[in-house]
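Narrative progress, year one. The postdoctoral researcher (J.K.) led the effort to move from monomer predictions toward full complexes, under supervision of the PI. The following entry was the first complex the group processed end to end, covering 686 residues in total.
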Amino acid sequence: MAEIRIENLHKAFGDFVAVRDSAFTIRDGEFFVMLGPSGCGKTTTLRMIAGLEMPSAGKIFLDGEDVTFNRGSERDIAFVFQLFALYPHMNVRKNISFPLRIQRLPRREIRERTEEVAKLLRIDHLLNRPVGGLSSGDRQRVALGRAIVRRAKAFLMDEPLGALDAEFRELMCEELRLLHNRIGATTVYVTHDQIEAMSMADRICVMDQGEVLQVGPPMEVYERPATRFVAGFIGSPAMNFLRAKGGLEAGASGVEVNGGRIAVPRLQEALDHADAVLGVRPEHIRIAGDGPLRGRVFGVEYMGTRQLVTVDTDAGRLKIRAPNTVRVDYGETVGLDFETERLVVFHPESDRAVMSELYAGAGAGGGHA
Amino acid sequence: MSAKSTAHSVVEASSGGKWLAGGLVVVYALVTMIPLVWIFLTGFKSPPDSISYPPKVFFEPSMEGYVNLFTTRTRQTSEYIESLGPPETWYDEIVRKRNMVIAGPSKFADRYLNSIVIGFGSTFLAVFLGTLAAYGFSRFKVPLKDDLLFFILSTRMMPPIAVAIPIYLMYRTLGLSDTALGMILLYTAVNISLAVWLLKGFIDEIPREYEEAAVVDGYSRLQAFWKVVLPQARTGIAATAIFCLIFAWNEYAFVLLLTSGEAQTAPPYIPLIIGEGGLDWPAVAAGTTLFLLPIVFFTVVLRNQLLRGITFGAVRK
């Protein structure tokens, strides 16, 4: 059990900056997910926490102790690799007990702890099998077992479900979360899959191009994105972005989009750029005859209880999640109405969200929590 | 004609094709085996049988070739031989039939022992150093890595004879000529290029995650190498060891030029048998048979590793 604190962590490989000045704290017992597209620096950050990579600058604290330059073996952190990294020349029991055998624990204790973990993961019947013949799900369990058996201070997981097929991934997602609830160990989980992140995390850290953009609980990251990237990366389909007129003052409660006024949560800071970007999630748009914005229906995807309607407007193309009771036809001109209190205004250049009543009381979407 | 239709895979041979392929393999095996079988049989022929024409396939086996291989003999008059009384051993008996007596052991056993010491010694060194070097090249950022790898290979680029004279001069100054140590070092130097290149390929195939997992679990880098990388490189190491051993075992040119008495191995010795008392083909064949055995044994013991080793890396698991 431990708190992991990261201060101004920086990592460069030659000219390429993999991680730029990140700082955040992973709380004791938290399930912390690092989310971002591939190459965003999340895995590098994780590897630095594990001691597999040395940072170019910055510090890592484990339970208050500076471990920045400790070897991996001196950190008491367990790591679950994407491709499991089970030793093919050992059977399941040997794989799980491997860290304990390194610690030269008494044989009886090794046996008991190995079997306890195997039971927890429901692989006790496989203990004497070679790892070669196992299904990928069971291999994943063995890899988890090898991490759990140590009772390490923290678990680091690098896309542990990436190698599983979709159906199995969902199952393991659930299992992992249940396991976490039971063990309660600090867990840092890296993924590029926003659904995994949203469903498991206590808090999510969104990264892009080596930078930490926002750290917060899933709901906060979804509803109050700190930047346009976070808004676009989380949610499926992604948030819509509309070109709007800028030059907004603090206290403004509407933006002009294509000549019509769309009400937004009251802004708490000014936006002095000539343009603005209005962000709106597909489920926060209603198709209504008298809406402030009009557009032509470009496509309709039927999805059971809901449908996804694509509408072309002069301010950009929009995706709308509508109930299936709304009847629309291709080429039809429709009016669009917006859920005012859910809208976000972004700065067109810095891409940061303009603070508004939406963010009030949420500790601001500043990101570096 | 055929009533049942089976699904055909484009890459799987038809049954006729399999028979043909099988037949060809058998024919090829026979062709390769004939000289070996002939050598093996000749070792048990008497000298007249070995040079008879037409060649004899069925003959009365004799140990004369092996006795001649391991002994030196002198020709004596029959009166002298009779004066010695009845032969004491079975090999005395064989020799006396040719009006000869055994004067002492030949040098074959010494030469053979040299072959074993030099062959296995240099193989062990080349594989040991090669594994470490290959691991380094595979895992670490080595400056001028590609140039170094190319440079290592350069020891294989010229025929031994081209460097034998300079090496001879160097060895004479260093006191290494005609010593087992000198030959071990030389063969190690030649083999290490092969070992590094082969083993680097094998080690490249072992995912780094294994070592990283071991390091996170509490091993040092060296322990991870020893306990995790080595067991998985086993097939590669076995394959490399066989190749190195075959080279060192069969090498002829260097050992002919650099050794004379002490450290000579079997390959230059076997042809010398011919000069010692006429064309003693059974003795030559016996020497060759014994010379082949360790390689055959080593290869058979490691054949599973070897087969897996050669196809290793062809298909991604």
